[in-house]
UniProtKB/TrEMBL annotation:
PANTHER family: L,D-TRANSPEPTIDASE, L,D-TRANSPEPTIDASE YCIB-RELATED. One of its GO terms (cellular component) is extracellular region. This is Lipoprotein-anchoring transpeptidase ErfK/SrfK. Residues 248-375 form the L,D-TPase catalytic domain. It comes from Nocardiopsis flavescens. The keyword Acyltransferase applies. Pathway: Cell wall biogenesis; peptidoglycan biosynthesis. GO terms for biological process: cell wall organization; peptidoglycan-protein cross-linking; regulation of cell shape. Pfam families: Big_10, YkuD. One of its GO terms (molecular function) is acyltransferase activity.
Length: 424
């Protein structure tokens, strides 16, 4: 017999045996059971309207795994059911559980718009099931919209390594944790940082230590849909970018009557100075980490602006040149040609006095955000006096953050906590 015929016969016999086995395993009158189809659920519910913009979008599946979730937003011009116009927006990002069982949005939704959710899941048999759902968020009246905040540094500005990010809102912020987690800081040279609140309208971000020099930093204020206070929602995002320049750190031990300035680790100038007399608190130069705030080629210094009115002991009013602000309690580094004790004794009202040449050099060669580290006096700079934010230890800074955890400034790093409403 031909070998090919014998082989063919064996295959036929095996096929018949398998068919008989399958018949024996299936009870008479019953069809083989199919694998259950994935069951996908989406919240907010399909067709729901008036949804709070800070409601998370959640997708879950049973009897399968999610393979794709897309959330898209549209304004009234595209969806007639929306309450008010909202601009078209990019898809909303989210996080998928490791086992593929659930997905939740990472950002809030635009107020007054329509939201479409597309979810796909794969079943045990490899087949896919897709579900499409839509709902509408409620609009926000003009008087309940979170106004765009003032941000420092300004977009495109070059600053020193101590520069904080200062965000000032027009309205008091009540839900601070949501707002903190919606403000992302990204740096080319990653570090840890965190937010603190100086008052009910001002949030400050500082890195754990000074910024690494020579890098770009981006601040994304993802405030759309964030509920800053009860019924007050953000309706727009904002992005600013700034450059951290060379590292300039000045150090000054007040009893030595000298300031040393280093740039990128090299001393570039040693400046004779005269600081506060230290007879009373108001004329004592503060010790601590001062971040340079602003500078003027000419400035009228009036003690009434710091609580010493005309007619009081210690009152002064002076016209000064080449002034660089180091605190909010009246301290500047500036030219003082009238002070004959520069380099020898402390005779000022608390400021750092310099010669005209040195003061002009300091004014011209420093940036907002450069650092002046001062020691040797009996008065410490308060953490909220000017930009004295490094006066708080890193541990204390974290304790005063609403999240209680640092932000990683590496690109794509998630915030320490959620951005949605506390009760959602």
């Amino acid at each position: 017999m031909d070998r090919r015929v014998r082989l063919s016969g064996r295959l036929v016999t095996a096929a018949v045996a398998l068919a008989l086995l399958a018949t024996a395993c299936t009870p008479a009158g019953e069809e083989p059971q199919e694998a259950p189809r994935p069951r996908i659920s989406i919240t907010p519910a399909p067709g729901e309207s008036g949804v709070a913009p800070n409601t998370p979008v959640r997708v879950a599946v049973e009897d399968g795994v999610l393979t794709d979730v897309t959330v898209e937003q549209a304004g009234r011009e595209q969806w007639a059911a929306a309450e008010e116009e909202a601009p078209g927006r990019a898809p909303v990002a989210g996080t998928l559980a490791e086992d593929g069982s659930a997905w939740v949005s990472d950002r809030n939704l635009a107020p007054g718009g329509r939201v479409a959710v597309y979810a796909t899941a794969r079943g045990a048999d490899g087949e896919h099931t897709e579900v499409v759902s839509s709902f509408a968020t409620h609009g926000v009246a003009k008087d309940a919209r979170l106004a765009a905040p003032l941000v420092l540094p300004q977009d495109g500005q070059t600053v020193g390594v101590g520069m904080p990010v200062v965000v000032t809102f027009e309205e008091p912020v009540e839900h601070r944790e949501q707002v903190e987690n919606s403000m992302h800081v990204t740096s080319e040279k990653p570090t840890e940082g965190a937010w603190n609140w100086v008052d009910e309208t001002t949030a400050v971000f500082r890195p754990r230590e000074y910024w690494e020099p020579h890098q770009k930093v981006v601040v994304d204020l993802r405030l759309t849909g964030v509920e800053a206070a009860d019924g007050v929602f953000g309706t727009a995002d904002e992005r600013i970018g700034f450059e951290v320049g060379r590292e300039l750190v000045a150090t000054m031990h007040v009893p030595d009557h000298r300031m040393d300035v280093e740039v990128d680790g090299e001393r570039v100038r040693s400046i004779p100075v005269s600081n506060g007399k230290g007879e009373r608190r108001f004329n004592t130069t503060t010790s601590g980490v001062h971040v340079l705030m602003e500078k003027y080629s000419r400035l009228v210094m009036d003690s009434s602006t710091v609580g010493i009115p005309e007619g009081s002991a210690g009152y002064y009013r002076l016209d000064v040149d080449w002034a660089v602000r180091t605190s909010d309690s009246g301290e500047f580094a500036h030219a003082a040609p009238w002070n004959g004790s520069i380099g020898h004794a402390n005779r000022s009202n608390g400021c750092t006095n310099m010669s005209v040449a040195d003061a002009r050099w300091f004014h011209d060669n420093t940036l907002t955000g450069d650092v002046l580290e001062t020691t040797g006096t009996g008065r410490d700079l308060e953490w909220d006096n000017g930009w004295g934010f490094y006066q708080r230890s890193w541990e204390a800074w974290l304790e005063h953050s609403e999240t209680g955890a640092p932000q990683d400034t590496a690109a794509g790093s998630p915030p320490p906590g959620g951005v949605h409403g506390d009760d959602l």
